[in-house]
Records
---
Amino acid sequence: MTDLSSDKINDLTARIKKNEGAFLTLIRERLGIIIHPHQKMDLHHTLLEACQKFSLTPEEYLHILTFSSNNSLEFSHLIAGITIGETYFFRDNNQMQLLNDNLLPELIQSKRERDEYTIRIWSAGCSTGEDIYTIAMMLCELIPDYKRWSLQLMGTDINAISLQKATLGRYTQWSMRTITDYFKNKYFTPVNHCFQISPQLRELVNFSYLNLNENTYPSILNGTNARDLILCCNVLIYFDNVSIANLMKKLEDCLVPGGYLLLGASDPVILKETELLQHHSQGLYFSRPAEKQWSPPSNPLLITSANTGAAKPTLVKTTLAPITDLPKHTTPELGLITKLMRESQWQEALNIIDKNIIQGKKTIFLLDAKATALANLGKLSLAIICCHESMSLDPSNKQSYFTHAMILLELNQLTEAETLLRKAIFFDHRFVEAHYQLGLLLFRCKNPEAGLKCFRNALSIAKNEKSDYPVSEFSNLTFKQLVTILENELVIYSKHSDKNNSDGAKQSPGHSSSSRPLA
Ligand SMILES: C[S@@+](CC[C@H](N)C(=O)[O-])C[C@H]1O[C@@H](n2cnc3c(N)ncnc32)[C@H](O)[C@@H]1O
């Protein structure tokens, strides 16, 4: 950091004030975060620090931020300055009781009754991971035979440094200020005035980068789909009303029917875009209503044009186009399916796919779309049947291997998933999502070196593609967003890889007790 004269600092401060509006707009547009009047002093301080640190004028800093990705050094500095990662174990007593006494026991019971031993919980905006580890501790207490279960716990955040700390799982006394001795002694080991989370808990939780203000979720690709419970606590306070409404709708879509959403006690709530049900018991929480029935699309044209497709299996070739410009399909209905898939409207897409299949148009496109939609809705067995059907129509169809691999990852069948991902890559060496998912899988299997190599492969492929194009037909994720995610994952996991190397820990696929892809 450069030491500046007071004249220079006064000049920078004046120019920061002059450009304040442009900084606020950029922060709102890129992160959805709104800076309230009482936070402006802190923002000015962060901007001044950045100008000194990077030897830039405020105008130059603004320019760099405008054209750099969210994980550039300059942007990371801004994110760290404007987001408060304050969090601790067992943070909100009422919420903890609600979870421990009601929601989690109910969830466990209903899963046992259905013979389904999988629980999927996501902390969105997890900072350094205390709240998702708290849930992990509760689950271990509530499910004595939890090792027989597939506990799929995930924490995501926009701050890669916080996520790096979460993956290391080492906490100061400050994070432990409300934890009881029982939990402290059972799940932590004191190390150099800090507390190291037990490997058993560490293994249960995966962390990854996700900007809640982007359209990259829900998706099976980053594990945000079909969640039984989502915690998004003390995050909405940062957002403007439009972003909050949008975010609540998307979080609703990430839940299984009947799944729960919990917010922080002082988080603003905007339900107008959602069908979420409100519950008031030991605090406010929300649930997604039971499954909706299909209703015909409102545009009658889309129904009458449905009979133009071929009856025998055909591969619908599509050229990927920017998100705003959907690929030209043979029928408007197929275009609509792609659009709905890209908007994560899985059930709506499925209804139209099924209608087409019933009409005798069982194409690879429809089967792949159906498998993807079913997998995203958590209907894994049905999705696998579609993958098999698609593979039998075209044994070299990379998409069906990939979707099947994603389902097996969700079922924790890592060896088989690895084989399928490698097959998908064999059929298309530039299959960026397969490289990325293989990287995540190898991390789960405690092979960080190989995992990092896959991330780097994925990154070099993604960087060579058109940045505003989607990475695949059914995804809203652009290559530019994938580059940001991969660069963040490399930050988070290169540290993890150092640690694993020094521990000398290695495991082969299929022997990991961790339970979900990290994306
Ligand atoms: C106060 S912490 C909350 C931590 C934890 N959920 C809790 O309640 O204790 C807020 C977190 O939201 C994250 N955040 C802010 N904007 C975000 C965005 N656009 N996408 C993802 N995370 C975001 C911040 O980085 C920060 O870690």
Note: The mean pLDDT is 85.
---
Amino acid sequence: MIKQNIEEEINNQIQEEFQSAYAYLAMSAWFEENNLGGFASWLKAQWQEEIEHGMKFYNHLIQRDAQPILQDIDKPKVQFDSPLEAFEFALEQEQHITKRINKMYNLAQEEDDYPLKNLLLWFIDEQVEEEEMVQDVIDKLKLVGEDGSGLYLLDREMGERQGQNGKEAEQSEDQK
Ligand SMILES: [Fe+2]
Ligand SMILES: [Fe+2]
């Protein structure tokens, strides 16, 4: 049996993950419009990941015999001044999610909800990875600055990330 306050928090988190997905898709559209297709496809892979995150919480409720109650998704930010501004926005968003996950973990601990604690451990690791990944792009964008050919090369590099296996591909790349 799942406690009411925990159920509410999970429902809120489903909304947060889908809201993140929507934000990444809107960013992807902006990059597409600005002829940076590599960034656009990287962000689309991120969109897919956020949907999967939402579904992990959704399935957790179903497994525990609770009904997921889907909430409104707000209109995301659709205009950005630059690629750097877009990724700084993405980092803020990830930091916000990290805070929420940590807060949920505290709640799960207080309420002795072991299954949720276990699920959240996966998310705690995932948030470290996500923040690192976005920060890495920010660092590269700062390095490139106003240099158009640098941005062109970075866009190509970003385009190498493959769909849902993006992270795995990235990791095996690192091991070479
Ligand atoms: Fe997420
Ligand atoms: Fe995320």
Note: The CA atoms of residues 73 and 136 lie 28 Å apart.
